[in-house]
Design goal:
The chain is mainly α. The protein has one domain. Helix content is about 55%, strand content about 10%. The protein contains five helices and two strands, in the order H-H-E-E-H-H-H. A two-stranded antiparallel sheet has the order 1-2.
């Protein structure tokens, strides 16, 4: 979702205290959050920098990456999706 990558830092860098807004991607959560092999649901994603996106995708794998950090990214994804719904509801008024 474009509004997320334009307005939020990397979720992981932010946790680490870096507040990285540079080259942010919208990472669709996979693993237990995926709704099918090729279906990407924008309600289940978070902003992450390209460095962390690379680590998740090509080095660690989604489940191991989050387990090592002891983080459930779905909680943050749910917060972002709720905010997006509220913004769009407000625009309809």
């Amino acid at each position: 979702m474009q509004w997320v990558v334009e307005n939020y830092p990397c979720y992981i860098c932010n946790i680490e205290g870096n507040l990285n807004y540079y080259q942010i991607d919208f990472h669709h959560l996979r693993g237990k959050y995926a709704k099918g092999m090729a279906i990407r649901d924008d309600s289940v994603g978070i902003p992450i920098c390209r460095t962390h996106h690379y680590h998740i995708t090509f080095q660690r794998g989604e489940r191991l990456f989050w387990e090592e950090l002891n983080i459930d990214p779905k909680v943050y994804a749910d917060e972002l999706y709720q905010e997006w719904k509220e913004i769009n509801e407000y625009k309809k008024l």
